[in-house]
Write a structure and sequence with these properties.
Layout (H helix, E strand, L loop, with lengths): L6 E6 L5 H11 L3 E6 L3 H7 L11 H8 L4 E4 L2 H7 L2 E4 L19 H13 L4 E5 L7 H9 L8 E5 L9 H6 L4 E5 L3 H14 L8 E5 H32 L3 H9 L20 H14 L3 H28 L8 E5 L14 H11 L3 E5 L4 H7 L7 E3 L3 H5 L4 E4 L4 H4 L3 H7 L5 E4 L6 H7 L2 E3 L10
Helix pairs in contact: 1-3, 9-11, 9-12, 11-12, 12-13
This protein binds nicotinamide-adenine-dinucleotide (NAD).
Amino acid sequence: MNPSFKKKILCIGAGYVGGPTMAMIAHKCPQYKVTVVDINPDRINEWNSENLPIYEPGLYEIVQSARGKNLFFHTDVEKGIRESDIIFVSVNTPTKTFGVGAGMAADLQYWEKTARQILECSRSPKIIVEKSTLPVKTALAMERILSSANNGIHFEVLSNPEFLAEGTAVKDLENPDRVLIGSSQTPSGLKARDELVEIYSNWVPKDQIITSNIWSSELSKLVANAFLAQRISSINAISDLCEKTDADVSEVAHAIGMDARIGNRFLNASVGFGGSCFKKDILNLVYLCRNYGLTEVADYWESVVRINEYQKKRFILNMLKAMFNTLADKKICLLGFAFKADTGDTRETPALYIAEKLLEENAKLVISDPKALKNARKDLKGVSGDISYIEDPYEAAGGCHAIAVLTEWALYAELDYQRIYTSMEKPAFLFDGRNIIPHQKLYEIGFNVYPIGKPALKHF
Ligand SMILES: NC(=O)c1ccc[n+]([C@@H]2O[C@H](COP(=O)([O-])OP(=O)(O)OC[C@H]3O[C@@H](n4cnc5c(N)ncnc54)[C@H](O)[C@@H]3O)[C@@H](O)[C@H]2O)c1
């Protein structure tokens, strides 16, 4: 090891957040040693290989620029803790599936185990940075655990939620809208906060690094995801009304988005949001509100999740209705299985719900995706039905009765749909769950086209 490293940074949890975030810090700050540890040896092996465990545009290049120089991946959590000055904790915080708060509250078991392990292995003072998304007030629990040994070692807990979006993680990390750091307002809290500010200042402009009290920071992450998901559910709710009234949701979105108070981003109607975070974080927020007796507030936010479930259900019902109320033995091609474009992540993907419901209707599925087929196979393992996985979209669509576009991969907008149409059963249907296909062109080719929130284009 280069003994002249200015700081030794550790990240516990080598997932979608820990891996890219630390790769960016190492890439931008050759003067720091950055180590990422995980209890999952397969994941660590993949981080050390040519095939990273996650797909993100540009990620391989930044990992490669630093790996083995000042970026290291391994499984020795204890050694990592002992040797570091600053520890980012980026373990998973899924929705609890058991006991009190099941289906709503955050499951903090991985989090708490990490806190105890830090306490057990530390021989010197450390700054602990919450990178995982956590219920507000978790830092208090963390501090209580860390000070329970009375061993004279001081731990300062900071909140530094991650706002990256999968699919654009590298871009978001390199050029974030803001970095948020919450700390306690004590002299040691402010000193630790300044150390973290210094790390980010290596590449993020100072005025984009904002600081707050620790509870505001923890809560801001939940609220950011709730607001983002709420915009999707809002436009999706309107898409239903558009379909009933012959209005066009894209035209409505364009018209309202030009109002500077509303803004034009995140207004694309779709089959629904997915990903590991939106649903879990809103439910976490809802649970917190219920805990504080805020029933109306909790109900308001819960409706964002309910509309999302409704949107997925509506998509299936539309398919069923359009295809003469029976899908049995019909071959349906799903174009896309990832929860969004430019990632292989399928956690909470609407495609899984759609696939399961189509199989319940005894449809035969052909699933296509450029990056998510490995995860799709895992997700559908044990689900009975006729399923095949074919990466090439032309081969996948051949002989199908219908195509459902479920992920907004750019390549799906540019396919040779004449060629696809020729190879399909007739009448050929296309259900565009992302509104990315040139609908009129497909209609002219011969497809019956069903977008989201726009009049269907059909030949009968
Ligand atoms: N995925 C996103 O887009 C995103 C964005 C912002 C914030 N977050 C938040 O970041 C956190 C991590 O999310 P993720 O998507 O990276 O999860 P992930 O499941 O991809 O990664 C978490 C990793 O932590 C490891 N881990 C669990 N317990 C451990 C322990 N005791 N010691 C060492 N490693 C341990 C797991 O093996 C796993 O590899 C979550 O709280 C999530 O809400 C995620």
